[in-house]
């Protein structure tokens, strides 16, 4: 079994849990609720990117996948000012990311949520009329390159895979799902 197959199998329950708890119909029912959802994603990504960047196995590879600035642009398009955004709450506590392998496991969750973002973007545009230019850049983050970005991330994961690293990667992915769930689904 490859590391990607193992990740998919061993994180399936956590993935399903967060997907069910997100209640996207409610969270994208109005412009205000959608903005609140983006605020929660901003709080997660801002904290996570700061914690993960120093330990990322390939800094340039990691930075091409950072999404905080997309969220800032979306929040500005939806009426928040820069000084309001910088004061928004950040996700705490984050999972420990003690090694590059832990960052890769965590990235698996974040990159996977980007795949689902394309579906969310379609619904946001259909329901609210918000496009990538008017407040939905985060969910459209990779645009037409989404499959290429996922494939290159998968290749990096498989390259990092070894009997000594796979448990760290899978464990970090599971913890990331838990933290993301608590922050996005249970926080006010």
From TrEMBL:
Gene3D superfamilies recorded: Heme oxygenase-like (1.20.910.10)
InterPro entries: Haem_Oase-like, Haem_Oase-like_multi-hlx
Protein name per UniProt: Biliverdin-producing heme oxygenase
Species annotation: Microvirga arsenatis
Lineage of source species: Bacteria, Pseudomonadati, Pseudomonadota, Alphaproteobacteria, Hyphomicrobiales
């Amino acid at each position: 079994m490859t590391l990607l197959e193992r990740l998919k199998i061993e994180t399936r329950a956590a993935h399903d849990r967060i997907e069910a708890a997100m209640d996207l119909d409610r969270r994208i029912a109005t412009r205000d609720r959608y903005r609140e959802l983006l605020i929660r994603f901003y709080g997660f990504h801002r904290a996570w990117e700061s914690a993960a960047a120093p330990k990322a196995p390939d800094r340039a590879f990691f930075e091409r996948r950072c999404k905080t600035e997309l969220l800032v642009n979306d929040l500005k398009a939806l009426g928040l000012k820069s000084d309001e955004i910088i004061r928004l709450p950040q996700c705490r506590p984050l999972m420990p990311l003690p090694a590059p392998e832990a960052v890769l496991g965590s990235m698996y969750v974040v990159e996977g949520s980007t795949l689902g973002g394309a579906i969310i973007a379609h619904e946001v545009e259909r329901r609210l009329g918000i496009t990538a230019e008017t407040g939905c850049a985060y969910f459209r983050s990779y645009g037409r390159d989404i499959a290429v970005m996922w494939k290159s991330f998968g290749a990096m994961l498989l390259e990092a895979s070894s009997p000594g690293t796979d448990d760290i990667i899978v464990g970090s992915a599971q913890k990331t799902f838990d933290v993301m769930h608590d922050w996005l689904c249970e926080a006010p």
